[in-house]
UniProtKB/TrEMBL annotation:
Pfam families: DctM. Part of the tripartite ATP-independent periplasmic (TRAP) transport system. It is a multi-pass membrane protein. This is TRAP transporter large permease subunit. It is found in: Cell inner membrane. It comes from the Bacteria. It comes from Ruegeria spongiae.
Amino acid sequence: MDVGTISLVLVFGLIILLAIGMPLGFASAVLALAVMIMKFEPELIFNPLSFGEGMLTGRPGTGALYILTQKIFDLLTEYVLISVPLFIFMAALLERSGIAKEMYNALDFWLSRVRGGIAIVTSLMAVIMAAMSGIIGGEVVLLGLIALPQMLRLGYNQNLAIGTICASGSLGTMIPPSIVLIIYGLITETSIKALFTGAFVPGFMLASFIILYIVIRTQLRPEDAPLPTPQPGDPTGVQKLGMFAAFLSILLAGVSALLLVRVGFLTLTGQNAALGENVDPIALGMPHHIPWLVISFVLGLALIFVVFGRERSKLGWAHGKGLVPPFTVIGVVLGSIYGGITGITEAAGMGAMAVFIIALFRGEASVALVWDSLMRTLRSTGTIIWVTVGAAALSGAYTLAGGPRYIADLIVGADMPTMLVLLTMMLILLFMGAFMDWVGIVLLIIPVFLPIVQRLPIEEIGFVGQLSPQHVSIWFGVLFCMNMQVSFLSPPFGPAAFYLKSVAPPHISLTDIFRGFLPFIGVQILALAVLLIWPSIVTVLL
């Protein structure tokens, strides 16, 4: 059977199976089997009794079937895949412990007198949580539990509150460590560390767009974000600024002290002695760093006790200490990756251990906490693995049937301008994202689209800046993630809506939630357009 017919059967078959409610993993597996039969043993369709006589069934475990099973086996035995349940476990621990709530209270204190401050705090909290774990569902649920009641109590516009929570809560798709980027890297054999680095600027750009939209909207419509009533004894703006500076001074002294202890340990054990004075492979860990760290430590102490005073510093620490655990986790995860200490998988394990140790010191660690987090991890990971197996089987079968080459020749042969090809892909991804989970899309669509993008003229990609050929797969991965940002809010099956609905007050309907999304979908599409127009923004840090 020709590849064109197989492609049509595949598209309509997937739509029908999903429409009747079959899970994506099983639907993909069924269609993978159908594709293999149509391509390599079509006589089975018309004569099932011929089983055992054709290319597929005559010698099971060989030929195309062997290649397909080997592809699935190779994917499931990738070491980096272990990081997925570890990041999910870390997010579950964060959701169950009080770390996130204390972080919200700290941010709320510093920004409570700013117009739209609670919404801005919610977005900042989402960015920090995304940099800790990158799990979208947990972030939306947690923000819905903590921030939504607060914004509604203060009289915030309901649509603004809903949109802020869901748009900000889905930032884990873009901001490293993103599980979407991890799966994309596994499927396309792209460096996950490079994908993380490339996604930094676009991820924080999108977060900035969301915060900028909140600021502009609340300035134009003050009634959407009323300021809280001042309470007697509340510090003024100048007083808050002094307290925050005192808090930063405490952090300066504390971090300097820890680095001094680290340098002392490395020096006593001789780990940095043989490296030489002019070589610096250990960041801030060489003997010649000691004087600078001592100066930094003394400066921090001078600011605390002389400039700001003990009382102000004590108040600053009391209101800011909730930010220390989250940034500690971020430092452990991302610092170990970019510091060259560990890989992605080990960093995920270290992050989960860091969250547990923090919960232990806070008195929140318990058997119930760990058990509930493990069960959530098992359920989420099981879903991802089953979808991964089914989608990997389907994409592998379609590749063996020649599908990607057929689609590539079809699109390239249509002689469309490069930007029109990319816009067509974005529209297809947006459409698929409204009906399918991102795991299925990255496993089914990306193996078809990426070879096409790699065949496009590199000089015609974007209008500002220039991509290097070795960065095309990284740029397209970040572009795909930005597209998936939109899919989390896209009706009728935007998952962020259902996550929020599970914890929202009864009077907020799904229709209300989707209505609140609309302006933020526009913000996300604007960020997607920036990546299409200026692709080299992805390579700024590479």
